[in-house]
Amino acid sequence: MHETDITVVQPERLHDLIKNKLMKAGLPEVHAEETARHLVFADASGIHSHGAVRVDYYAERIAKGGTTLDPKITFEKTGPSTGIVHGDNGMGQYVCDQALNYALEMVEESGLAFVGVSRTGHSGALSYYVKKAAEKGYVALSMCQSDPMVVPFGGSENYFGTNPIAFAVPSEDDTPVVFDMATTVQAWGKILDARSKQKEIPSTWAVDKEGNPTTDPNAVQGLLPIAGPKGYGLMMMVDVLAGSLLGLPFGKSVSSMYDDLTAKRNLGQMYLLIDPARFTDPKEFTKNISKMVKELHEIKPAQGFDQVYYPGELGKIIHDKYMAEGIPVATPILEYLESDTVHFDQYGGKGAFAK
Ligand code: NAI
């Protein structure tokens, strides 16, 4: 396999290209603006699996009617610290950002917010949301459903999604500690990224149609959970908290990203926001988080490592670098963004593992 060329793009230009493409597909400006902000954050943080690589697919889904263009987003407060945001299957990044705002209002008032997001589109990289909450001083957890593309431990057919978990906590120096991971060895987007770059994947990430490990991203038919039965258990927990608890389809009934692009996704997401001041002295708390980071940095690295990073630190380091120097994007993705094209038959109906 030959690796695809990379072009470095300034964040503002990437933002405008993404926003314009989504609007060309039919998305209203305010939704396109928020989605572009989110996708640039992902690419700038090195999360290329959830950045510009997704625009082609999003645009096709928007053009085909699988995203509500003018969603009636409502907040149903179900208790002092609980509520559900009904997303009406709007653009996931927009719906989930709005939902976060409701959760922030609630935690400010009650010190705790468990807010579910019911019936949203694909929401992208979850670190985007939890980081925002931690920047306002809250401890934040978010999880979401994703399409069933993971073989359960010991199984040969897909059941749960790549169901990610993101966590953020404020620190003393205004830079939150943000950790964000899929419960699979790699997110599905990493397979997409490898496909876009024509790059082989490690044999530990995924299986082919016979259930055997594969290094060819085009042959992938199922992903593997992290740490065997433990990751398998975590993805079940995510499916319950972000799906069943909100009365949404679960397990293999969760909608598939590439099956029918005219249909709505009906996905679930959840936020748990905690005001540290309700439990401890918040100044002491953030001081201790910074102390933890410092102590981790002081740990002698193992052979082959240059230093110990706090969980998620690499994303922040990359973000600072790419925002200053420009973001590397696969050249074919950039060429697509710069073109007038909105695809209509690139992804739809080709199943979760479309090539
Ligand atoms: P990953 O494997 O690249 O990284 C996982 C975490 O480990 C990150 O916080 C990263 O900064 C940290 N990390 C990596 N190397 C490290 C090191 N040496 N020291 C300390 N920390 C280190 O992420 P993954 O699992 O591929 O997920 C990518 C993204 O996909 C996430 O943003 C996730 O939210 C998103 N996602 C979204 C889905 C959706 O449906 N909305 C579904 C699945 C994933």
Write the layout of secondary structure elements.
Blueprint: E1 6-9, H1 11-25, H2 29-44, H3 55-64, E2 74-79, E3 82-86, H4 92-110, E4 112-120, H5 127-135, E5 139-144, E6 165-169, E7 177-181, H6 188-196, E8 206-207, E9 222-223, H7 229-242, E10 267-274, H8 282-298, H9 313-325, E11 327-330, H10 331-338
Parallel strand pairs: 3-4
Antiparallel strand pairs: 1-11, 2-3, 4-10, 5-6, 5-10, 6-7, 8-9
Bound molecules: 1,4-dihydronicotinamide adenine dinucleotide (NAI).
Residues 47, 49-50, 122-127, 144, 146, 162, 164, 166, 179-182, 186-187, 189-190, 309, 311-315 line the site of 1,4-dihydronicotinamide adenine dinucleotide (NAI).
- Can you tell me the CATH superfamily of one domain? Malate/L-lactate/L-sulpholactate dehydrogenase, NADPH binding domain
What molecules are bound to this protein? 1,4-dihydronicotinamide adenine dinucleotide
Percent helix: 25-40%
Number of helices: 10
Query: Low-confidence spans: pLDDT under 50, at least 5 residues?
Result: none
CATH topology description of one domain: Ribosomal Protein S8, Chain: A, domain 1
- In angstroms, what is the radius of gyration? 20 Å
What is the average of the pLDDT values?
A: 95
In the sheet with the most strands, the strands line up as 2-3-4-10-5-6-7
- What does the main sheet amount to? 7 strands, mixed
Query: What general form does the structure show?
Result: globular
Task: Please provide the count of β strands.
Answer: 11
The helix/strand class is alpha+beta
- Along the chain, the helix and strand elements come as EHHHEEHEHEEEHEEHEHHEH
